[in-house]
Write a structure and sequence with these properties.
The protein is α+β, with helices and mostly antiparallel strands. It has one domain: outer membrane lipoprotein receptor (LolB), chain A (Clam). Helix content is 21%, strand content 42%. It has seven helices and twelve strands. Strand 7 (164-170) and strand 8 (176-182) form a beta hairpin. It is globular and about 50 Å long.
């Protein structure tokens, strides 16, 4: 099994996963009381005529609204199955994912593939050599959903997929993420972005509300490259929100 591809998948997923926390402090401070109240209000029923901006608003409300925006830290602990491209055999392991502010860390322990990856808000570190360069986490995924109504962001419609309503959010620099939500409740089912010749997708299969915030308890990350598609399938056993996280957790090794 090619170890570098599952590791790249995990690291890219790490960047995607820290979205709920990354902008909690900065964006909440810029949100006016009127805007804050509106984001917490129950969204209107989703229909075939619901415009894309309202789909984004419904997705944000389903994630927890203001509680989601103000999330200060998130710790997820559980198990992971890693699949290299064109392989049906997985590596089983354990993971711990920690995010706080604009920082994130993941530790994975598995046979033949135990490693640590850290993003301290400006720089990244991987215990594995030759990791491919990755885009800034602010430019795709959940951080984009958090900022969809800010100046310079554009929300456009996408064709529906089965019972999932789709919309695209493009940031001021032209980076796009495609989101698909459950039309019945507005919950985010999956989102996809394309960068530097690869496609990265997140699929949520089981969600739980924890302290008013919707947390994925069963989800997968998919990385499509020329070599094929690699997968990481996660099962969360414990989730902790708004815990005090020491700075040393995100310190980069010398």
């Amino acid at each position: 099994m090619n170890m570098k591809l599952p590791a790249a998948l995990l690291f890219l997923g790490l960047m995607m996963a820290d979205g709920p926390v990354t902008f909690a402090q900065n964006d909440a401070a810029r949100t006016s009381p009127a805007t804050s109240s509106a984001s917490a209000a129950a969204p209107a029923a989703i229909t075939a005529a619901t415009p894309p901006e309202d789909l984004a608003r419904a997705a944000l409300a389903a994630q927890g609204g203001d509680r989601f925006k103000q999330l200060k830290s998130l710790v997820l602990i559980g198990t992971v199955e890693l699949y290299a491209p064109n392989s049906t055999q997985s590596l089983s392991g354990k993971f711990a994912l920690v995010t706080a502010g604009d920082r994130a860390r993941i530790d994975v322990t598995a046979p033949l593939l135990s490693f640590q990856q850290i993003f301290d808000g400006q720089n990244s570190y991987s215990s594995l050599p030759n990791m491919p360069p990755l885009p800034q986490p602010r430019t795709f995924g959940l951080p984009v959903l958090l900022r969809f109504d800010q100046p310079g962001y554009k929300v456009t419609a996408l064709p529906d997929v089965k019972k999932r309503r789709g919309f695209r959010i493009t940031d001021p620099d032209g980076n796009a993420t495609d989101f698909y939500i459950d039309a019945a409740n507005g919950r985010l089912v999956n989102f996809v972005t394309e960068r530097n010749g690869y496609t990265f997708a997140v699929e949520n299969s089981k969600m739980k509300e924890v302290e008013g915030v919707l947390i994925p308890y069963s989800f997968s990350w998919r990385l499509e490259m020329k070599q094929g598609a690699g997968f990481a399938e996660y099962r969360v056993k414990d989730a902790k929100l708004n815990q005090a996280i020491g700075d040393d957790v995100f310190a980069l090794p010398n």
